[in-house]
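Subject: Interface between my chains keeps coming out wrong

I've been trying for a while to get a sensible model of this assembly. When I model each chain on its own everything looks fine, but I need the whole thing in one frame so I can look at the contacts. Pasting all components below, labels as-is. Any help appreciated, I'm running out of ideas.
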Amino acid sequence: MVISTREKNDILIVDIEGEIKRSDITDVTLHQWIKQQLERGKRKILLNFEKVDFIDSFGVGEILASYISTNNLGGKLKLVKISKKLFLIFQVTMLTKVLEIFDDEQVALESFFKE
Amino acid sequence: MTGKRVYRLLSRVVDLRPEEASCTLLLFFYFFLIQISAYIIEPVKISLYLRWLTADRLPYAYLLSALLIGLAVALNSELLQRVRRHFYIAFSLLFFIFTLILFWFLFRLRWPWLSLIYWFWSDLFMVTSTTQFWIMVNDLYHPHQAKRLIGFLVSGGLLGGVTGALVASRLALSLGTENLLLICPALLLGCLVLVYFYRRLPQKEERTVSTRAETGKPAKSSPLATWRAIRASRYLSALAAIVALGMIITTLVDFQFVSVVGRTFTEQDARTSFLGSFLTILLIFSYLFHILFTSRILRKAGIRMALLIAPAFLLLGSVAIFFIPAGYLIHWAVFIKGTDKSLSYSLNQSVRELLYIPVPSEVKYRAKVFIDMFVSKFAKGLSSIILLVGFTLLHFNLRQISLVVIAFILGWILLNLSITREYVNTVKRNLKIKWQDADRVINESLDLDLTKLIFDTLESKKRSSVLYAMNLLDLLKTEKMSPELKKIISYKADEIIARSMDSVLESGGQVLIPDLDEALEHGSLGAEVEEILYLSSYQEVMRDYLDRVSKDRSREAETSRMEAAKALGLMEAGSAVTRNLKRLLKDESPDVARYALESAARLKQREFVPLIVRHLGRAATRDTAERTLVDYGTKIIGTLKDYLSDKDEDRNLRKAIPGILARIGTQRAADILSLELKKQEEEVASEIIEALYRLRSRHPNLLFHQELIVPEIIRLIKNSYQFIFQLKEIKDKKEARLLFQDLENSLARTLKHIFELLSLIYPMEDITRAYQNICLRTKKSLDYSVELLDNILKKELSLYLLPLIEDLPLETRAQRCRKLLKNLEKLSLGSEPGDRKTG
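Reply #2:
Try treating it as a single job with all components included. I did that and got this:
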């Protein structure tokens, strides 16, 4: 998993590349990385999954843990361009009811300002 | 005399139905006339043979008769196949009338060997006329009918025998032996008139199976073909063996008797006088025994017991010879011969004829003629050879002959026992299973859970993409998704996707559109979802949401509550979030409650049970609640029992519990239901009976305690009697027509319950066979069912049950039930809690 970031209007856009899975844990997990960003004062985070090839339940756990950490600090964590399969899994698990998921980055960014 | 009068008259001496009166009376007189003739022809035969050819040449007469009778059998079989029944009998009678007159004329010519021909002729007359009579009986009656009436018919024959013997003994001196023959043609002409009326009687319905119809060729009727047909049937083989052994024993006993009489009475006149008195007393005794006991034994003890009575007495008599002093041998001889003959004239003849009744008609008549005429004559020939070898060559004394008799009697007993089993099987073959148990068929041929899931999935399409996706996942897990099913499920996928977009578009803009059809191909989806659901982070994320949704009772939030209820079932049992299910189980929306119940079925937490049980009293969710509790399985059997026993609980709730216990299907469930049966009020008891029946049907190995089931059957029989009394009371009241129908329905329902209970303690297939054929209510199906039940049920049960089933006029039925009710009250006194309140 390779993480790179961009920032637009105070929103941290996290571009994730590769696979997020238990068997491929890097030195820093997604959740740890997000926590680092939160410690740096970032409160608006948009995770971009456009270049994520595969994500397993461990990866979903990382996303959820990141969501909780962000939420607990009064921040917002949203998702964009997740795969069809992941969306179906989120539907089955009702996570679509809690997480905000977008297909278009611009729309996702705009949503931060609408609140 | 009108039919009603005949019925009234006959019903005093025999248990018959109004429509049976004419034919029964006709057959009675036919047999009466035939037997008068036979008992005139018989003494003439012996007398003339002894006069012209002496007693030393008797074995030759036996052998000749045995050999020639084979030809007669062949001719008879052929005629039976080719000629109509009444023509065949009428021509036979005409033949015997003509030949009787011819013999009377020829005896005047004083040819010594004519008496040997007459010996054979008289044997032919005896077997032919008797066989023809029983064929007429077979044509007209079904087994249970015959069981009621056969005793009366045999008594006609016995009375004829007594009359014939008296006529012969009284008129022989005044008319002369040969002239006695001229009485018989007049009697046989009387038979001819009765055959004319017999032709008009309705024959019983028979199976339509016909060898001729199937093959286009007439059925083979040669003696060899008949012999093969008998060999091919276990039942007919046993029947033939019984007849043969009975004949051998009779001949050996007769020989012992004659030997003892010969030794005791050396003077000819004294011997003749003794024999004459013995024969008369024997026939009168046989008649009385027959009148008093035959029908009762058949009705109350059944065929098995009736078949064992003669062998038991003969065995006793044969053993007794070893303990009897020589001076008292004549008493022993009278006892053993008297037993053999009197039982053979009465009980044995009735039972033997009954045994022929259930045999398929296409083989019955040929086999009967062959067995009665050929096999029995062959046995007689064989026994004369045994005697010639044993007595003449080996010089056996009476005791050694008794040992031979004992060996044959033991074989006879074994055969009699075996044929009883075969008899029941043969009756069963006449009762086809008419329909399969619907509950069982549905369970075996339909996957109800899958069907329900498919409907839920399709239904959820319209409501929520989340629900749809979750249902889809469930379907996926079943691994029963055929391509056709996938097509149906993904129908109108665009619409669903559009809805799914709406549901997640909380902040506007575009969302991902997952391709569900494609997702269906991913087999690992279920495992991944499960792993996510078990994540603590997931539970944390969802906790607030689920808490909020489950508390929101608004109509708008109904779909969200349904989704929550469904999702909770996918989570780990015992986790904090699953407690929300308690709230959802109390939800007033049936749709939400249904999903909550299904989730409870997955989680199987005991704390949910009281909330699930409440739904048993609620029509909209009862079915799902039942399935949920079934999924809990054996661990909640005790809890269910508590609810079932608690009379303060809602009755609808309690009525649902027997069905759940039946579906759990364990021995404990069966025991609880059996125990609760007597404690419950009518409505719940009715559910328990049906549940017990389902248990038995699905789990044949479960045991049901007779001591719990039989009292309940007795109680239901008593209830049925009461319905019959009430039906009789209002039968002619026009204003009570609706009540009459209502009572008839109640009676039918109670009868169904009786059979359901019977199937718990008797072979289920037999009881089902009998019940279904009773429901058909044709004369044949009813009669064979009654016969089957009479043979398989304990006498104390069949005695009280059969009057409910038999084809009886309502008045007669009520009368019988009233008589039986008194005994029944005594039977159930002390063991019964009394009548129940109906719901």
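Reply #3:
Confirming on my end. Residues 706-828 of chain B form one domain.
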